[in-house]
Structure formats: C-alpha cells, structure tokens
Amino acid sequence: MRSSAKTRVDRRLARLEGQIRGLRRMLDEDAYCIDVLTQVAAARSALNQVAAEIAASHVQTCLLSRDSEESHGRARDVSAEEAFEELRETLSRLMA
C-alpha cells in the first residue's frame, strides 16, 4: 500500500476508534437506543470506507501495477484471470 493510502486508512481507523469509544460511552450512559443505532450505522459506514480505500489501493498496487516498480512487494504473481477472481471474491465478502 502506498504511503498516502496508508495515511488515509490510518486516519479513518483513528476516527473509527473514537466512534467506537463513543458508542461504549453511550451504552454506559444508557443513551437512547435510536441514538446508539445511529452511531452504529455511522461506524459501519466508516468501516466500509476503510475497506473501500484498501480495496482501491489493492487494485492500484497489487493488480494494475503487478509488473512495475509501483507494485506492492507482497503482490502475488498471478494471471489476470486469477487476479480478477481474487478481486471478485474480496468484493463479494465486503458486500455481504
């Protein structure tokens, strides 16, 4: 993953960490259930954004740049069909 993508993901995860702490505090303070559920939805959305950022980075550095200097050091040497199948399976898991 490129440094800029790592920075964006790390920022999002830090924000998400704060959201989770806030959720725990809301439960401790016996907040209104709908307010808690609203924050759960926000946290889920934030986590989905993290996944989207990582997936985009994967496509860029592991699939599209497989044979270039921009390639991720741990990118697998696979055929285009195998790369497509890996991406399809990953997106399927994310959307489930």
Annotate the secondary structure layout.
Layout (H helix, E strand, L loop, with lengths): L2 H26 L4 H32 L15 H16 L1
Textual characterization of the structure:
This protein has 96 residues and is an all-alpha fold. Helices cover 77% and strands 0% of the residues. The chain has one domain: Metal-sensitive repressor, helix protomer (Methane Monooxygenase Hydroxylase, Chain G, domain 1, Up-down Bundle). The model has no long low-confidence stretch (mean pLDDT 89). Helix 1 runs antiparallel to helix 2 and helix 2 runs antiparallel to helix 3.
Count every helix, treating DSSP H or I runs of 4 or more residues as helices: 3
What is the alpha-carbon Rg in Å? Answer: 17 Å
Give the name of the CATH superfamily. Metal-sensitive repressor, helix protomer
Spatial gap, N to C terminus: 24 Å
Largest sheet: none
Number of self-contained structural domains? 1
| CATH level-1 class | Mainly Alpha
Mean pLDDT: 89
CATH topology title: Methane Monooxygenase Hydroxylase, Chain G, domain 1
Q: Give the strand tally.
A: 0
Portion of residues in beta strands equals under 5%
Name the structural class.
mainly alpha
Order of helices and strands: HHH
The CATH architecture: Up-down Bundle
Low-confidence runs of at least 5 consecutive residues: none
Helix content: over 70%
Give the overall shape, derived from the CA principal axes. elongated
